[in-house]
Structures are given as structure tokens and as C-alpha cells.
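Hey, can you fold this one?
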Amino acid sequence: KMASRQSQLLDAERKKGTFNVEELSHILYGNEELFAQRQEITKVIFNDPILCRDDIFFLSRSEEYRRGLQRAKRAVELFDELGLEKGSFKSQVFWFTVDDESLPIGLHLSMFSHAIRGQATEEQKKKWLPLVEKFKIIGCYAQTELGHGSFLRGLETRVEYDRSTQEFVINTPSLTAMKWWPGGLGKTATHALVVGRLFIDGTEYGVHMFLTQLRDLTTHEPLPGITVGDIGPKLGYESQDNGFLGLDHVRVPRDHMMMKYAEVTPDGRYMTHTRGSKMAYGTMMFIRAHLVFGSGIELSKAAVIATRYSAVREQGHIDPKKPEVAVLEYVSQQHSLLPQVVTALAYFICGRWMTQVYYGHQPENAEELAELHATSSCLKATCTAVSSLGIETCRRRCGGHGYSVFSGIPLIYKWATASQTYEGENTVLWLQAARYLVKCLSQIQVGKLPSGDAQYIGRWLKTGSRSAPVLSSTDGLSDPKQLLAVFEAAAARMVALAGQQLDKFTLKEKMSKPLAWNRANPWLIRAAKAHSELLLFQHFADILNEGMSAELSAVMLSCVLLYGLCRIEENSIFFLETGALSSSDMRAVHDHVARHLGILRPNAVSLADAFAHHDMMLLSALGAQDGDVYRRLYDMAKKDPLNRTEVADGIQEFIKPIMKAKM
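Sure. Predicted structure:
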């Protein structure tokens, strides 16, 4: 079979690359050994007829859920057949590639099991984890309510301790108190970690988790006092049964409270343990840390599709005397797509760092917890927001075919955009991070310099001008260290501006602190965004310290600089308002962006290939490895159920009478 014109064009693009693609893949996925393990697991999964998802385009909602159950069963069987060790890199790759978050058991594998590991005592873990790991029970994490989400203190679910029976009585006293949105809750889970406010003799003791059985383990019918079901169709995640849950004075044993950080004794005394109840935020921080890497995954898939397609889609002339060119030759296309490629690279690297931070160092005190909470909050918010916009940019840059579900990008967008609101709505998370930054600012004002990720604030506000441009010349835009200084100065000054607004509203306008905080929201959000942009650039730039060939090093330098410069373009208000860059500096930024687009243009497809996404992961006619886009589009269209007959159902009944009628 002769290769299509488009396949030939994509092969030609790959030959333009100036670096070893696998060398970059090894860095993105950890090292050569880990990358090889990933490729091995991926191949096994997508060669399985049940786990591959090539039928996803034509399923109804009910069919998708049933297919999800079938895939979940096969995934558990295959995991066992492969003899994978729980918690190993291979096991993580397995579940990530299977796309566990879209499975009805996805939240059982992530939030439910992680919460038990992090919040239960050793005795409780010995009892429950074997049941969780062997799927003897299927769990979910039930925190969000119909009327409340991220605001834990506003939860309405009440948990009363009955010392006479040594049981907790869980009740959702109103419609808005019903649990709403937890994945796996609607039809799949047999148990839930129910998050509610604890009361003992009328006194409240904060928010805690309680392991609650929802369904009979034999019949799967809901237990007495349990009202449970699916919340209905959503924008995406059709195979996931996000559910609602009402509890009518449901009783659970005393030892079903997660008791690592606090417990209720049999006689009803509330006792806290060493590190305090705020450590219970760990489960959400764990998910947020993974969402940084997940944002990179989803954006990279869209960027791979759009870049490959742009390399083979010929349309128009740059020089009227020459043949049509691939749309990737247009600088406007490069300016749209190459920033998405380097942003995905940045989120890969930063996601790896964030995950290592979470696993490598559990916070031992409230100060460390506050920093980790702030970092995970603002990075989750910024990465999910930027990646969602980037995915939509990739779709639009594919032209009309990008609107087809067969492009693969609409599916990616549906999955990715949900992350802007689950595990904390982004605006709320930026404000939570801002609260930590303002606290650091207050420490600086009394002579105490903050530690960790916020050290730069004290350094920049303590020394030198608070408004002068950072660069002595625009040549600094070609130096990652000087560019990092620009990000630091802008972020520190944005934090200072937010503090000034709070002072203005409290001291000059005599507002209460809560009212002042509300009025200062826009400045606070900008401060948190600037802080997150700094962290992302800083840790992406760390890739330049990794051992790599001279060829790859040169390419990665341009990637890091293009990423930083494009983030400056996108957030120019941070840098101009704070004076970190002058207007002439900003004009030079545009020139430097254009230069790096030119440097990276020959490597566009090679950079996309380095993500090493299997065709079955992309599910795209436009972005497949072979580049044969038009044949794939046609073949996929022929599979549409509408095309099973030459005359569609309903034509004779509804259209022919109109055609025959005398109008």
C-alpha cells in the first residue's frame, strides 16, 4: 500500500528534527527504564479488545456506563494477570493509561483508597485496605453537597454521636445537604467516605470523614435510610456515574470515623492527635498535585493532534508562485500551537515535581501544610485553566475538522474542562493561595522572612526598588536566570499590591477584614496567578539542569524561553503594572517570541512525538502517528450508525410527505 500524501508529509517533518525524540521522552517520563515500562504497559492495554476505546463515539449514555463497567472488570483482571505490584510505577502507568478517572471505579482507585491510607489509623487500615485493594467493597468520596462544594465549613451534613450505642448518626437534613457530584456514587459504590460536621451533645467539632455502607453487598440494593442515584448527563465523563446521596439518620459504628488525627472515645470525648485536624486536607491536595500533571497530559494530547494535522494540512499560498503549503508554515499557526506544546512540556515537568513534593515530604506542621496547600491550590487552578484554553486553541487551529468528534479534541476538552471546577473551583483556589501569600507579606512587615516557595517575596521587597524594571538590557530575555528574576519581581510586587489594597480598604475606608477581602478579590487573584506562573517557569527551567545531549539542550533552552516569554505576553498586565518590565522590554518580548518560534519550527512534530501518545490514547483521525488524516476521517464516518442504511429511519415518515404535499 502506497503511503498517502499526508503520511509522506509527516515523515518529512520528522526528518527535520534536530534532536533524539526518545531522549526527551525519557526525561518527560522519568528515565529510560520508566519510559520503557510505560510503553510496554501501554501496548498491552491498547491491544486488549475490551480496554481499547475505538467504539466510544457512537455509544449512548447508558451504553457508555455499561461499557465503563465492562472495562473496569477487564482492567482489574488484566492487572492481576500481569502480576503488577500495587503502588509500583507500572501499576500507576497501568491505571492512568486505562484512564481510571473515566471508569465507574475510578474514584475508588484514587480518592477513596488514598483517603483511607491518609486518614485512617494503622488498625483501621489493616481492617479496610485489604477489602479496598481486593475490590471486596467499592468506595467513593462524598464531600460535595448540592448547596456547598469547596467551603467545608458550610457543609450541612450532620453527624451526631450516640454514646448509648457507640454509633454515629449521619443525616442530610435538607435538599441542599444531599451529597451531589461524587464520582462512582450514583450506581457503582457500595461504600462512601461521607464528609460531615461532627456534633457531640450539641457541640460542634468540625468536619470529619465516616466510612458508610450504602448498598447491600449481595443484592447491591440501597440500604435503609439511603437515597442514592445518578445526577444525570454532563458535558463529559459519560461513563462515570456521578451521584446524589441522601442519608436519613443512618447509623455507623464508632470505629468507622477516620481517626488518624482525631477520634471520639466510647464515652463521647473528642480527642485530637499530634498534627491536628487540618491534615485532613491531604486527600484534596493529593488530587490537586496529580491534576497539574494531568493538565499537561490533556494539553499535550490536543497539541500533538493539532501539530501533526497542521504539518499535513495543505492550504493556501505564502508565495503565490509556489505550491500550497502546510498550515504549520504560517507564523500565526506556529504562534498558536508551539506555545501549547511547550506549555504541555512545562506541566509535565512541574507535575512530576509537584507529585514528588507530595510523596517525598509529608508536612509535619501547620506552616508546611499551609505552604503545600497554597502551592497545590494555585497550581491546580492555573494549570487547569490554561490547559483548557490551550485545548480549545488547538481545536480551533484544526479548522472545521477540529469540530468533528473524530478529531479527538472535543473529547479531550470535555474531560479537561471539568477539572476547572472539581477538587475546588479555580477562583476559590486562587483566593486560598492568596491568603497564604498575604500572610507571608505580613511576616515580612514584622521582619520575618517567609520560607519555601515564598522566599522570593521577602527578597524582592526587602532589597532594591519596588517598581524599577529588572532587566538592564533586553538581552536578558534570552537568559533563563534573568527571566526568572523578572517573574519573581512581578509576583512579589503583585503580592505587595494586593496587600496595599487590603490596607486601603481596612485602614482608609474602615471596612471590616471580611469586606475588605471581598473588595480586594481581583488584586488577590492576580497575585496568586503571578505566584503560580513564577513557580511553573522556575520548575520548568530546572529541566535545563538535567543531563542531556547538546542537540536536545539547545532545543529545550528555546522551549523554556518560549514558554516564559509567551506567559509574559499572556499576562502582560502583571509585568507592566508592577514595572518588572518596561514598555520597550515588552516590545522586545514579541521579537524574542518570534525568534524562538523560528528556532522550534523544524522540531514541532518531533516535540509532539516526544510525548509518545499511543493512537488509542488520542482517538483522533487528525493526530494519528501515520498522518493519514483523510482516509481515517472517511473510515470513521462510515462507521456512523446513520450510515448502516442508505435511507435513514424517519425519511419516509416525515420528509417524503413534505416533499409530496402541495404548498
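The first strand starts at residue 139 and ends at 142. Let me know if you want another pass with a different chain boundary.
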